Write the structure tokens for this entry.
Amino acid sequence: MITDDLDLAKNILNSGGVIAIPTETVYGLAGNAMDTNSIASIFRIKNRPYFNPLIAHIGEIEQLKSLCNTIPVEAQKLIDAFWPGPLTLVLSKKKSVPNLLTSGLDKVAVRMPSHPLTLKLLKSIKYPLAAPSANPYKYVSPTSAQHVESQLGSAIPLILDGGQCKIGLESTIIGFEDNDVVIYRLGGLAIESIEEVLKKPIAIKTKSESDMLPGQEKKHYSPGKKIVLIPFAGALPSLVSPDVLITWKPQESSHKSISLDGSDISGASRIFSLLRELDNPQIGKIFIELAPEKGLGKAINDRLMRAAYPF
Ligand code: TXA
Ligand code: MG
């Protein structure tokens, strides 16, 4: 059922059920983050392997105390600047946080989403919500209630409808290692904005094949089609029907564009619905022009490269 009834949503969550919730980034598949049965249901519905941990969503900063031991000074600066918003922090976890949530890691990922409906829901319950993106494992993340309905509608009792996701890319994930601030996932908050607050450059932590870092699978966001990426402003291919060309900005020679006006904000909000539309048997090869490598363009390119893998 697609509804905006918060009481219904709350009742299902309170009895250990799993529902879909809107956030400003993407829709999440949510359950009680402190209840191992609810967490296990999320993994099962999403068909997600248990080694890939979930983010805990909170409605009040106070709740952090129940999840983590210490908050590094730089984490606090980021919380002050960007919460509620598209930023997830990976912090040292309290023993009481279920190991199933963190896949056995001693750190827990936490964020406070800014979507008003979900923030209201979070403030009205006594526990954080575990919520991965509400898509089957490895598929494109949902940015509308209808996206969730089309794939997980029969597996969950309720989809809380909060309209289109404003940002459209998952949260940026930041960790703290020794004295370094590192990025685990590019996302809806631009690195440049984070660096401006911390007043120093930060590094992107990439994994080598042997060193499995959660959530960094090369193949992800897949529309199940052959995608060929073109460098930004590079030479465009000659097309053979039924191939399609997606350019960064609207252009006469292309079928569609990622961004409507060339801005990264427009591109971010459209990229996942576009990838879903391309999951269509009538379409041949898909040529996609990458975004300029700045602001949210970096995260858009990250998603496009994973969607296209193996090239
Ligand atoms: O915007 C978002 O973050 C959305 C909305 C629903 O909040 N959620 C989301 O969740 O994207 P998910 O599960 O699709 O991606 C969470 C990522 C995964 O790549 C996971 O591996 C990583 O966060 N993660 C979770 N806990 C972690 C931890 N303790 N250490 C390192 N990475 C962690
Ligand atoms: Mg996901």
The pocket of magnesium ion (ligand 2) is lined by residues 132-133, 141 (CB under 6 Å). The chain is about 25% helix and 20% strand. The radius of gyration is 19 Å. The chain has two domains: 2-204, 227-307.
